[in-house]
Specification:
Radius of gyration: 25 Å
Strand order of the largest sheet: 8-9-10-11-12-14-15-16
Largest sheet: 8 strands, antiparallel, barrel
Distance between the termini: 32 Å
Structural class: alpha+beta
Number of helices: 5
Number of strands: 16
Strand content: over 45%
Amino acid sequence: DALVTLSSTQPALLAATLTALPQLQGIPFPTDDRPVPLTLWGLPEHLTPAAAIRGNHIAVYVGDRSQAAAKELSKEPLNHRGWMGAFVDTKRLHALLTEELMASPLITEAMDAAACVELQLAADALTSSDRQIAVRGAVDPQGLGFRVDQTQRLRPDMGIAKNLKGDYRLERLSDACRWVSVGEESLRSDGSGGYQLATPELGCVTWKSDYQWQQLGARIVFSESRAASRNSCETAFTLQEAVDDSCVIVGSDATGFRCLFQVGVGESELYRYVNQER
């Protein structure tokens, strides 16, 4: 659900003025209290916002609850002291980012992997707590005043997986916000582990590694003991220099967890560990 309102003593004139803006040309706006469907670029197909004039207010809404709230606006008089108001529910905002925006090809198709990582990190940051924030701004005799009301319930695990041992399918967040399968990885209870990476164009494993691992809070530290690679499926593996690495767990759920690796100065890659036992 979402609801955006603009208020005026002449809402029909305000609606006509909005259609003159270059960004809104071609988008029909209401002239009375009859709802007008809006076709907005970038929205998932199942989201169908509408606009209507309710009393002294232009309401743009999507969802049944917002539609009901918009109808109530016809009873609300203008208040010259009111300035702005906003409400955010982080749990619902997380669902919007992951289930709507990141699932919409119209939005993600032009995004590169780096932009997709930032969007996913923003979504994961919202899962560490269930927070509701209401902000109100108004004019009083002393000037502009603000009131902020906030409720917050922290997740006991803060979104950090505790028991990581298992066999995983390894996926990397790529361009257009697509998760691409790149190999398999095992984290064993005795602290040993290993992974193997496949090259899709070749259709075979081209890199494999063995290591010792440990979890330090939200960070997983890998101490490589053996690494080998090859350039084609027909050639033998060649030993490579063993290196140490680490990643930061940025989110987890019933299917596994996501871990952020630094691969260069200012560059990072996000991997999803999908539990293969499920």
